[in-house]
């Protein structure tokens, strides 16, 4: 399933077509010239763009409205920040807070419980301008783990600590919790972070495990495989966002409660460098700024470093074809996952460049954004919005009927022009 939509302030629904259909990259034809804007010219009207996801897994029709609502709220929160002049990294953190606060997502409030019945969360954030990264793993008692990750990033940007010590970029467990409290982030009892949905899921999965352990060896193995498949397919493992701001900076973030019934202390892709998210501004080596956020089975995403792989692929001329090949060759068919029956994951990606188009003696400056999402899970819920739009667009992408999750993929996306007139 492949599709594209394009808009400049007005959003259109993605169009679907066969997976084999080829697309030329809209970035190659939409603008007549690509160059750095004149620093003496002051652009007006460019505000930024945000793309969010509420997890790659399975999104039931009965809760589709809730998933879409939280994506809309996350987009609006980020856009509000962008309109106020915030940089991409601040806007992406704001979007993640909204996603973490929803009881319907597996991040922050309502996260999956581990084997011990506790909530341990992972989160990370990356700033494409500074290339700084902050992350927390298996952290308990913090309502919004992304705020800790963001604070780690901002503290690292201040430079070395006393006596020349290197500031941390990745903290886990009790140490992460204590660091957060010490830096003014309030604690939240784990029992208050559990919801009726997460508690009932924990009790249901625990009963299944107890039954499986009582069965004979042969049937036990079958039951465990079935439970594992249900776990991967059913849980909405990880939420995330990618943002480009009015200056063309990009940022990405990701947050997760982890797989259901995970072992205490397990850290998923949401905290690992290059696996959960990636953001990198354009430079001499790269023509495009790129930002990526991933979701799915953390172990699969860690072993393939999917976020960084997808970001690197976005430097190709045809972004759509590049992402299709990356998901197929670097993920589904990865030699690092050769032993897996089903490879489960999803990504949201954006790439952008500054452009100038001469028109009636005016320089129309702006940022051309191409955004995509792809997944091998049954479904993936996304939302997107530019600062020039009145409301966000949301979509639940699903694999075509008859296809097997983990062995096939869906890919969709669109193009956004963020335009301004230079004075």
Automatic annotation (TrEMBL):
Keyword terms: Hydrolase, Protease, Zymogen
A Pfam family cross-referenced in the UniProt record is: Asparaginase_2
One GO CC term of this entry?
cytosol
Return the annotated site residues (Cleavage).
237-238
Q: Which residues form the active site?
A: 238
GO molecular function list: threonine-type endopeptidase activity
Q: Which InterPro entries match?
A: Ntn_hydrolases_N (IPR029055), Peptidase_T2 (IPR000246), Taspase1 (IPR037464)
* Domain of life of the organism encoding this protein: Eukaryota
Q: Name one GO biological process term.
A: cartilage development
Q: What segments bear the compositional bias annotation Polar residues?
A: 14-31
State the family named in the UniProt similarity comment for this chain. Belongs to the Ntn-hydrolase family.
Q: How does it assemble?
A: Intramolecular proteolysis generates 2 subunits, alpha and beta, which reassemble through a non-covalent association to form the fully active enzyme.
**The name this protein goes by in its record:** Threonine aspartase 1
Name its species.
Anabas testudineus (Climbing perch)
